[in-house]
Specification:
The protein is 75% helix and 5% strand. The chain is built from 9 helices and 4 strands; from the N terminus they run H-E-H-E-E-E-H-H-H-H-H-H-H.
Length: 248
């Protein structure tokens, strides 16, 4: 028979899963959609391009916009794994893929709709000659980009959850920083390259050298952010412990 304190603990834990789950899904979906944009880090910071030379090519700090949110997605992954185990991460990862597929289908449907005349004309006053084409260009990610994103996301999440759990088991629940960083090192290496290889190399006309360059910069950024955000992981962990209290 459950005691009153145990029931209260379970209720708090259920609420926690809902909050973490919705945060995870929201960040994952937004990251997938904004990931179609390749941005210049130098230009965003207002500095001159690095113009790094590699053979006959010149490279700069160009990354997908999705990397802005992915560090938070993987912090949430680690937190969910910490309190709900590998199965909790797996369930949310599968749900995220289903919701992403649904989102892409709905966007495709919206793209097929004919724009209202006043909407199209109003956009011209803002310097947008064809609002319908602009809308489709922004939201109309290619099929291979969608496939690459989904495959990379799912593989990355499942591997992250697996490695996190293994390290946690071997360290007897100690050293959060080790399991969080260790799982990110491996999972993000796979995630950073798989999506670009499928979307831009196999599905596009980009060179493998360019794909590896962007993937490497994305990976370095994610690793750097994983280290920078470690204190935040500890803060969240402590807050959750205080919120849940001790199970009776």
């Amino acid at each position: 028979m459950l005691t009153e304190s145990t029931t209260a603990f379970n209720e708090r834990k259920n609420r926690l899963f809902i909050v973490l789950g919705f945060s995870f899904l929201t960040n994952a979906i937004i990251a997938e959609f904004i990931g179609a944009k390749i941005f210049s880090l130098e230009g965003s910071l207002g500095i001159q391009p690095l113009n790094l030379k590699w053979g006959d090519s010149t490279y700069n700090l160009d990354m997908t916009a999705g990397v802005i949110l992915w560090p938070f997605v993987f912090i949430l992954t680690d937190i969910i794994n910490e309190y709900f185990g590998k199965k909790g991460v797996q369930r949310l990862s599968y749900l995220a893929v289903i919701m992403l597929v649904y989102s892409f289908i709905m966007v495709r449907f919206a793209m097929s709709l004919e724009g209202a005349t006043w909407w199209l004309k109003g956009a011209k006053t803002q310097g947008i000659e064809n609002m319908g084409s602009a809308f489709n260009a922004v939201f109309g990610q290619g099929l291979m980009i969608i496939v690459g994103s989904l495959v990379a996301f799912l593989i990355g999440q499942l591997i992250d959850a697996l490695i996190f759990e293994r390290i946690k088991r071997y360290t007897n629940d100690k050293m959060i920083w080790l399991r969080a960083t260790g799982s990110t090192i491996v999972s993000q290496f796979i995630d950073s390259y798989v999506v670009l290889v499928i979307a831009f190399y196999i599905g596009g006309n980009y060179s493998l050298t360019w794909v590896l360059q962007v993937g490497t910069i994305n990976y370095m950024y994610k690793l750097g952010m994983a280290i920078v955000l470690l204190p935040l992981l500890y803060v969240i962990h402590n807050l959750i412990d205080k919120y849940l209290g001790k199970k009776a």
